[in-house]
Amino acid sequence: MPGRVDVKPQVLAWACDRSGQGVERLMERMEKLSGWLSGAAKPTFKQLEEFAAATHTPLGYLFLTEPPTETLPIPDFRTVGGCSSSSPQP
Asked: pTM of this prediction?
């Protein structure tokens, strides 16, 4: 398929999780997301830009071969509901 971008489904799933929105909510906004996650379809560059904006993910991260490991550079002592978070929040 000309004009399509090869993106790893596990990186797309990571971006969905990282956004905190959930796959189902993002599928409501982007109807072809399920095909991208299954590997049955590939997004266009424009669709990938829209996905990056919707998930608050830097566009370049979506071209990685595997999801990056994110660490907090300094301890974050803030809590939500008495529980701390081990992953960065957008």
From this structure: 0.75
